[in-house]
């Protein structure tokens, strides 16, 4: 099963989500991330945070949703701007959910305050991904309305 995490720039939240998911996922489940307007580089603080959490970072890079090698079954948007954008037509019947997460890369303040923002975003995404993996492990069909509702609620129930 292919999962796609989307943020407009694909430099921070979606990258972190991709890495967390892939570090915890069962065989046969894989996540990638992309953006509608990707930046050229992944946010360095995001990479440093993942390394600190012992999550593999090899191969993580910012990419366009137009350059994906496979079509995902589930698309999760993490920022409000990506949630409101029209996804490419090839994403067709993919299930969609929005799990809004504040962008830690725009936080201004001391180094400690910025680190705290990254940590808070990481913890929220980690919690949601753990709930998502638990949901995926249940015997649901992707077309089951209960699965779809629970998938969407993960971004609401914190």
Structural key phrases:
single chain; 158 residues; alpha/beta; Rossmann fold; 4-stranded parallel beta sheet; 5 helices; 4 strands; 39% helix; globular
Task: Characterise this structure.
By secondary structure, the chain is α/β, with parallel strands linked by helices. The chain has a single domain, classed as Rossmann fold (3-Layer(aba) Sandwich). Helix content is 39%, strand content 11%. It contains five helices and four strands; from the N terminus they run βαβαβαβαα. It has a four-stranded parallel sheet. β3, α3 (80-83) and β4 form a beta-alpha-beta unit. It is globular, with a radius of gyration of 15 Å. The model has no long low-confidence stretch (mean pLDDT 89).
In short:
This protein is of the alpha/beta class. The protein has helices at residues 13-24, 44-52, 80-83, 111-137, 145-153, and strands at 2-6, 30-34, 74-77, 95-98.
Mean pLDDT: 89
Kindly identify the CATH topology: Rossmann fold
> According to CATH, what is the class?
Alpha Beta
CA-CA gap between termini: 25 Å
* Amount of beta strand: 5-15%
The appropriate CATH architecture is: 3-Layer(aba) Sandwich
User: Any idea how many domains?
Assistant: 1
- The best one-word shape is globular
Q: What is the H level of CATH, i.e. the homologous superfamily?
A: Response regulator
- Point out poorly predicted stretches: none
The strand count comes to 4
Largest sheet: 4 strands, parallel
Backbone CA Rg: 15 Å
Helix residue percentage? 25-40%
- Secondary-structure-based class equals alpha/beta
* Spatial order of strands in the largest sheet: 2-1-3-4
Q: Count every helix, treating DSSP H or I runs of 4 or more residues as helices.
A: 5
Strand and helix order: EHEHEHEHH
């Amino acid at each position: 099963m292919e999962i796609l995490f989307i943020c407009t720039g694909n430099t921070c939240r979606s990258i972190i989500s991709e890495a967390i998911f892939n570090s915890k996922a069962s065989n046969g489940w894989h996540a990638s991330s992309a953006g509608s307007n990707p930046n050229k580089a992944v946010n360095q603080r995001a990479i440093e945070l993942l390394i600190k959490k012992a999550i593999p970072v090899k191969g993580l890079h910012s990419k366009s949703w137009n350059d994906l090698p496979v079509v995902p079954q589930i698309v999760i948007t993490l920022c409000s701007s990506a949630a409101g954008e029209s996804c490419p037509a090839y994403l067709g019947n993919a299930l969609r959910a929005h799990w809004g997460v504040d962008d830690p890369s725009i936080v201004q303040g001391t180094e400690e305050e910025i680190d705290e923002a990254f940590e808070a975003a990481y913890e929220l995404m980690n919690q949601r991904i753990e709930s998502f993996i638990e949901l995926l492990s249940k015997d649901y069909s992707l077309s089951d309305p209960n699965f779809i509702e629970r998938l969407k609620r993960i971004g609401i129930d914190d």
